[in-house]
Amino acid sequence: MKKISFPLIVVLLLCIIFTMIGYDTLTLRKESQKYQELQQQNNSSQTTSTVSNHSPIIYCIGDSLTLGSQSASYPTALSSLTGFSVNKFGGAQDQSIDISIRMGKTKVYVNNITIPSDTTPVNISLYDKDQDKVDALKGTGNNFTTVEISGITGKLKYNSEKKTHTFTRDQKGTEKKITKLTQIKAEFPTFDSNSIAIIFTGTYDPQSENGIFRTITYQRAIIDQLKTKKYIVVSLTSKRKFDIVDSMNTVLKEEHKEHFLDFRKYLLKSGLKDANITPSTQDKKDLETNLIPSSLLKEDKLNGNSKFNQLLANQIVQKMIDLKYITEKDLQS
Q1: I want to staple 62 with a disulfide (CB 3.0 to 4.6 A). Which of 5, 47, 66, 108 is the partner?
Q2: Residue 58 β-bridge partners
Q3: CA–CA separation, 210 vs 111, rounded Å?
Q4: 138-190, pLDDT tens digit by residue?
């Protein structure tokens, strides 16, 4: 019998994965096309990065798992371990598309609204450039609270009960009728070209049959906007949220290759031991079903606790060393 080549094994594995997660070819093609268009737009635009020769800045980009509380988030632990400047960027319960929007890579628009002359809130829908509705910007984050629409500054808010966005102008003025796609503008961040980016997204992305490919599309957009080749993409961790999380992580690893940090695999194998935690009865039950041990999670069983965040910071530091982004000498003694 002839030996099967490694590339063929990879292809077969991916085919199995695609089948498992219900890969939708048509939808993926549409998402990929949108990303390619985003990439072309960026190539023709001015770079947002700045040149720097100082110690690297670490940007931790993600949702509430990244933002956390100031004392318990993994970026805080990362700052203590490295002594580098660590900045957090994202929003509470942000999807990957939300972060791409907040970074200015993915643009959102309004259409067919009238902004009144007074400060009465007006209901708005968010659209992409193809006039498809965009389900995004539902949580608070680094930006997109104060926005500008057709030269009028105001506040963008989301009402979770009514499931609608509103725009409220800051000052009274002339009534403005908008009858064509008009971009919602905000203050967008700039990133140092000597930076290292830690991307931890996807936990709040839709659980659709092609969800992981949508996540990858916007992770690509985020990476492209950062203008740095030094980045790490952290795996998804929660099987409680995604039953097929291991298959999803396999696809993420295939996409990001050496930049991928399989934090979930580490937690299942060594998390409790490295955190000096004696497994509880619940922890043992969790591990038997490939769930992250409860002793490493908050009560919601989704967000990590202080032990989780410290372990993640440790793993990120080791990954940065492995990728030669930093050396042991760069770390604080």
Answers
A1: 66
A2: 86, 196
A3: 29
A4: 999 999 999 999 999 999 999 999 999 999 999 999 999 999 999 999 999 99
- Residue of 12, 32, 62, 25 lying closest to 210 (CA atoms): 25
What pTM does this model have?
0.84
CA dist 99 and 89 (Å) reads: 8
SS3 225: helix
The contacts of residue 244 (CB under 8 Å, 6+ apart) are 20, 21
Q: What is the DSSP letter of 207?
A: -
Q: Which residue has the tokens 């996807």?
A: 202
Give the DSSP H or E segment for 311.
helix 306-322
Contact residues for 273 (Cβ-Cβ < 8 A; gap 6+)? none
Structure-block tokens of residue 135: 């389900």
Q: Tell me the β-bridge partners of 20.
A: none
Nearest CA among 105, 98, 200, 204 for reference residue 141: 98
